[in-house]
Amino acid sequence: MEATNKIRNVLGLTLSSPLVIAGPCSAETEEQVLQTAREIAATKRVSIFRAGIWKPRTRPGQFEGIGSIGLEWLKKAKAETGLPTAVEVANVKHVYEALRMGVDFLWIGARTTVNPFSVQEIADSLKGVNVPVLIKNPVNADLDLWIGAIERIQKAGITKIGAVHRGFSSADKSQYRNKPMWELPIELKRRMPEIPMICDPSHICGNRELLFSVAQTAIDLDYEGLMIETHCNPSVALSDAKQQVTPAELDKIIDKIVVRLSSVEDRKFLSSLEDFRDRIDELDTKLISLLAERMGISRSIGEYKKKNGVTILQNSRWSEIVEKRTNDGVNKKLTADFVMKIFESIHQESIHHQKQVMANGVEVKKEK
Length: 368
Ligand code: PEP
Ligand code: MN
Prior knowledge:
Layout: E1 8-10, E2 13-15, E3 19-23, H1 30-43, E4 48-50, H2 69-81, E5 85-88, H3 92-100, E6 105-108, H4 110-113, H5 116-125, E7 133-136, H6 143-155, E8 161-165, H7 183-191, E9 197-199, H8 201-205, H9 211-220, E10 225-229, H10 247-256, H11 264-308, H12 315-331, H13 336-358
Parallel strand pairs: 3-4, 3-10, 4-5, 5-6, 6-7, 7-8, 8-9, 9-10
Antiparallel strand pairs: 1-2
Helix pairs in contact: 1-2, 1-10, 5-6, 11-13, 12-13
Bound molecules: phosphoenolpyruvate and manganese (II) ion.
């Protein structure tokens, strides 16, 4: 990461570049925690070591976290590396145990932020303890719920609070595990400028490949930090294996990130552009799935025609399709020429699939 001149104070830490929080999704064994912490500390790029001790899993029977014993390993990791530690707390018992074992930062997970009762209970248990707290966005795209959770923690007297943007769950297919919806954290930054914003690209992406670009976008949007899940051996991780990186990979990602000195206006423009591009990517993914589904039906029709000895090409049907689709397209402000071209192309592909079926699955060369 290119250093900036800007010296920031984030959550009580004085930094010359954005804050980096890294560590495994879950603490699994003492060796895994210590090994990961050692390798992370060796990169000299990380300020806080994270690990999940109690894991909120979608279905029971999955690895639900190692529990309190893991706090002992975090203590050892801190003693050895000097890195302060952070864990997720979802109830009062978690808060007491984490504080008793000297955890330095607490975070409230996305599945807890959605529930004002749980957040309030955690807030009440924090009265009189000024431990820094990070609050992840709720799983659903509800900005007020996120702000409400921050306010509950503020009202408990906590002064060091950070927001963590980990993306929002959505029924729409997209390249992300949780859609970033950048406009929400940006609006939170506008409404609560004193709250540092930390991006968690790991839970946004759900895979390693997209981590860098999401992290770079966050830095371009002037986020104060990043939280990246890092494991000494990600392929055997007991949770979130696909999205975790090794400390060496983390080092490379952070090294590649450029801290630009662009204006906030440029950043707002970038974020809107990013949102538009996400929507286009999403629609293109849907288009491809729909086309694949359509060709699947063409193949079934092919089978049916074959059984009944009917020819592939039936001109009356084709003329009807062209007319209907062109009218529909023109009504939706597409040019007739464009709609014709698309359907000619779809028709060609469809005939190709049907020919394959007729030829008993023998590969048929596509006609030009
Ligand atoms: C985590 O950080 O491992 C976690 C469970 O995250 P989230 O609450 O964002 O799903
Ligand atoms: Mn995780």
